[in-house]
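Write out this protein's structure.
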Amino acid sequence: MSRRGRKALLPQAVHRRPEALADGALIVEHRDLLDGSLRLYDFSTLPLSRAMQRSLAVLFAARCRPQRWESVATSANVWEMLRVFADWLEALPEPPRDVDEITTAVWSAWKLSRTTRVGGFHQVRRLGALLLDDPRVVGEVAEAMGKRIPKPRTQETSYTDAEFNEIKTAARRVFRSALLRIEHNARHLEQWRAGAFAEGSGDWLIGEALECLARTGHVPCRPVGEGRELQVVARYARALGGRGKQHTWQRLYLTRLEATSLGVLLMAEFGLNLAVIHTLPVPRASADSGPDGHPTFRLELVKRKRGSGQHHETRNVTDLGAGSAGRLITQALEATHFARAAAETMAPGTNRLIIWRTTVRGRGTGVGDWFRLGMGENSAAHWGQLAGVAVGSPFRRGRRTVNVVDRREPGQNSQATHDTTYVLPDARTQQTAAPVIAAAAEAARRRAEQVVLAAELREAPVEGDAMTATADCRDFEDGPYPGPDGRCGASFLACLGCTNARIHPSHHARLAHLHHALTHLRSAMNPVLWQADWGDAHARLEHLSRRLGPAAWTKALSEVTDDDRDLIGDLLTGGLAA
């Protein structure tokens, strides 16, 4: 498409001030279409000229809208790419002052500095697409930015069984401990609500503190000091055993580490990626649990990278008892029950499974002062260290391990993407495939042996043998291919694979000519049809040529007579029953 034609398809927001970009400011707002969270991007912080900051902000803001960038995660990812690009431009001897001053040489240098790794490939591809939205980017520069580049091979591979087991064991240990703690305090709260404790007793105070914690997100507190910080009321602190988080809010809520551990278990069980787990809605149990009483949960999965209209997928998972995938969902619902209830009270319609409480009040995005939704890259990156496992974020490699090694089927991908992006480049898959390929080769070798020459080679004819089109036969009555009349029912081409057949020098020229004819016929026929009709016969003749040797085979070809040619011609065209 020409540059003029492409301009007509550009987002109109490029030609006017996008609504996401405030007047006279360089701050772009982006609201997540799914959860409503808001992210601000200040382009004045980029080490670029004012004109370049403004141009990039306009391009960025034009994409921060439905049908373009629906997720804050997408805009945040591109923002980080822009920061890297800005730092790279700043280091140039003469940085471009605006988008229209980015030359082909500048873009080529940027591309060469980036494309040795997968992350750099995405930086070049996504920033090129962003800059092409500017109508001033034309000619060779536009062609350079729009040029397809090969994606580097991923260095990422699936975990070994030992590595993945260590990750799952660590995640179970952390989450299981949290689940038992929350279940214990939930029972205590139920007992308090049922009036099981004497008013004013220690257990009663704990129950009242848990009731307050379930409603508000914190146990009874009072403001103290000039900063008016909240402090647990003394009598409750004594009953609870202290004012620390392990004595107070952790009784009913997950920590960030524990919530991330739950996410790791969901990844290991279902092969979901981090973004899907981050936004996972609360699974709903079917109204009818069936005669066996096992609840079936409906998981609604949203993967925005699949494109408009392909985001959503559902899976039904049944709790069949300990160790089942459905039991993990049951436990996840129990562990997050109080956090979800509190979040629903503060922000109706939150509908997120992964909710955890933070120690620092009002920091970050979430619900109310204390609750955070899902988990981000930072949570995933620090999980291994905090959980005592020598890994960074386990989600990418873990998901690859589940879908490539365990499930061996696509997980929210097309079959083509699963094969080309996950299976074929995976080092563990390649290692596992080696014995499979070797076994297949051995099977092929055995198959080849079944169609090789079985006829006996003789120096001269044997008295009493019957002549056929391709060999002499010592016994028509007792062969491996009996016909309806009890005599041999095989074609003349099958004679070479029969132990009753005998080949002597009088047959060599004729068979050499048959081999020559079949070889030429192969180039003129559909390969599948040729293999079906003539493949076995050709393989046996190849074997015969090797047995006789090149010199004898060449000599045989030179001795072919017209009678041999006519006989083989009839055999191939059906004039002689094959």
